[in-house]
Design a protein that fits this description.
- This protein has 523 residues and is an alpha/beta fold.
- Among the domains are: 195 residues, no CATH class; 140 residues, no CATH class.
- Helix content is 27%, strand content 16%.
- Helix 1 crosses helix 3 and helix 3 packs across helix 4.
Length: 523
Amino acid sequence: MARFGMYRAFTKFSVWKLLFCCAFVAQAQSPDRCADLKLFKLDGVEITKAERVGAGRIIPPSYPGAPAIGPLPGHCRVDGVINRRKGVDGEEFGIGFALALPEGNAWNGDFMMQGGGGGNGYVAYPTGAGYAGDKPALVRGFAVASTDTGHKARTGGFDFSFMRDQQAYLDFAFLANAEVAGVAKQIVNQYYSKPAAYSYFVGCSTGGREGMILSQRYPAVFNGIVSGDPAMRTGRSNLAIAQWIPVAYNQASPKDGSGKPEIDKFLTDAERTLFMRALMKRCDAKDGVADEMISDPLGCDFDPAVLACGSGESEGCIAPQKIAAIKKAFSGPKNAYGTQIYPGFLYDTGIASKGAVPGLLALGKNGLFGPYTTATELDVDKAALHASDPLVEPASTNLSTFSLRGGKLIFFHGDSDPWFSALDTLDYYRSLAGSSGGAQKVAQWSRMFLVPGMGHCAGGQSLDHFDMLSAVVNWVEKGDSPDFVIATGKAYPGRSRPLCAYPKHAQYIGSGDPQDARNFRCE
C-alpha cells in the first residue's frame, strides 16, 4: 500500500481486506486473542509486541509535577512500527506506535488517538488521559493509540535533529498521525470483529497542531478533534518570545560589567508585584467577583501607562522606559511598516510567574531552546522571512469536508501561555467564519474556549482540569453542543468555574457561593 494512500483505508476496505478480516475472526476468538495480534499483516507494518496488561497498572508521571495515571483496566497493548527504513547517515527511522485495547465488553465501541508534545520522538503510553477529566479514555472504554510520529528523540523532548531526514520531517509535520490512525483502526476491527463507531483525536501544543493538521488535510479520519494551545506557528512564536520580547526588555534592562543587558533583572520583584496589583485591580472583578482570575481577558482594558513614574517620582511606580518596553513586548512583533507579524499576548494573572515556564514579565536568562538574545535591535522583516514553514503550519481555513461530514472541532488555549499566544489561536478561529459562511455557522461545528490563568497546556494560577473529551464526544454522538465546560484545579481547591465558548465568558450572577460554577453564567 502506498504510504500517501494509506489513510484511504479508514473509509472503505478493499475486497482482499474484507476476506482477510473474515479469516482473522476465528483467531480473534481464541483464548489469547491479544497475542494473536502478532499475526496481523499489512504492507509496511511490523507488530513488535502484543500482550495482555492486567488491571491495576499505574503509569508514572511523565514529567515533574504531572499526575500518575491509573489504575488502568485490563487491556491488550500492541506496539508496532510503520515503514521501518534507513535514513540519513544510516539512522533507523519508522513510525512507532502503541495501541491499548480494552478487554472484552469493556470496549465502548470508539477509538481515540492522543497527540504528542514538543518534538515528539517517543511513544507515550496510550491512556488518553489528557483533558479527559477524572477518567482517562482507556478507563472509559476507548481503544487508544499514540505515536512517536516517525523518529526517536535522542536528547529529550525538544530534539529536532531528525529534521535533517526529509521523510522523518514529513512524518512529523503531517503524515504520521493519519497513517497510525489507519493502521490502528484496522487492528481495532480485527480484535473486536467490528470497526470503531466513532474516532477522536485530543492533543495540546504539538498535539494541538496535529489536531488542526488532521482537520485540514485528513478531514475524513476523525469525527471529533480537540486542539489545545496549538503550536501552530512555531517560527513566528519563537520570533516573538526569543527575539521581539527580549529585545524590548533589553533596551530597558540594567547592564552587567561587559555592557550586556541582564534581562532577568528587567523588573524587580517589587515592580512585578506593583504591576500585577494594578492589573488585578482593573480587570479581576469585571466578572462580578474578585477571585484572582480574569475571566474576560478580551474585555480587560488595562494600560500599564498608569504605573509610569512622573517627573521626580520613584516610589510606587515603574520607570517610563520599562513601561514602554512592556507595552511593546506584549503588543507582539511588527515589521518596519507596522504590519503585525505575530499577535500580542494577553494581560493575565500568569504573566509574572517564575516557574519552569516563566511568564512574560519574568523572563530568565534562558529560553526554551537556549539563552535569549542580548541584542537591543531586531530586523523583524529579515527574521520573518525564515519564520514560516508551510509543511508544519496548519493555516487552511476551508474545513468544509470535515464539517459537512459532521466533524466537530474544539479549541482551547491558556490565557497565560507564554510560548504560543492565545490570540493567535483565537485569530485562526475567527478566520474560519470567512470560509464557512459566518461565525454562527462555524459555531455549529467548532467552539473555542479561553482558560483564565493557565500557562502552556496546564499549570499557573488557573483551573486547568477539565473534560474536553466528553464535550466533543457528546457533540458528535448526541448533538449536544458545548456552550461551557466545567473546570477545576489544584491552584484553587474547592473552586469550579464554567469555561465559556467564545465570545462569552463566565460572569457571577451576584448571589450564591462564588466558588461554585453553578453561580456563574456565560455572557
